[in-house]
Amino acid sequence: MLKLAIYGKGGIGKSTTTGNLAAAFASLGKKVIQIGCDPKADSTINLLGGNPVRPVMNYLREFDEEPEEIEQIAKEGFGGVLCIETGGPTPGLGCAGRGIITTFSLLEDLELFETYKPDVVLYDVLGDVVCGGFAAPIREGYANEILIVTSGEKMALYAANNIKTAVDNFEDRGYATVKGIILNRRNVENERKKVEEFAKNSNLEIIADIPRSDDIIRYEDQGKTVIEGNPNLEISKIYLDLAKRLLEEE
Known about the structure:
It is a single chain. Helices cover 40% and strands 18% of the residues. By secondary structure, the chain is α/β, with parallel strands linked by helices. The chain has an 8-stranded mixed β-sheet, with helices on both faces.
């Protein structure tokens, strides 16, 4: 089973990247689960035609009890991707990271992975602060490898460095390792050079270079990934090629 955690600064495009990768894996015939680990709970929306799944934390607040079936907190989206969102606490109350820990515990109780038997599991994780629940995919054995999404912007690279440092701190415990960097371009000056420099200093590889694309925005306005919208686009082929590479190197 390929288990990937995709980290990056908020707003850097990690959810777009994760959703398109999930769709790409599904298009290659793989059984996929995508778990959004962000209080915004919008990671999977473009796999669901713009109709979001109820986040786990919302369910627990509304019903004051744990769900008995995975269908109560999950939806199947494009290509049969099973979509789950952790959600977060009531704004101003509680810790967002606790939502991830609570969700992961609940999924274990529901025996999700044993029952669903996925080929690929993707965790879309906010990477601005890598502590508590946000570090769970790294340190609890849920993910095998980590992909860091960044642009050439200063704060995106700062967050990327924090993520790499957090992973390095768990190095001697046999937890997830960083597979590589996904450059999600924002068309800043000398962008490729800046990210290459960070990659070199971090001893990491840039495994995908995703250009700015109006097609991504156009299909997201329709609640779709570009893979669903048109798999023959150049931008779609980049995601498909990355998915193929990740499967080959598993």
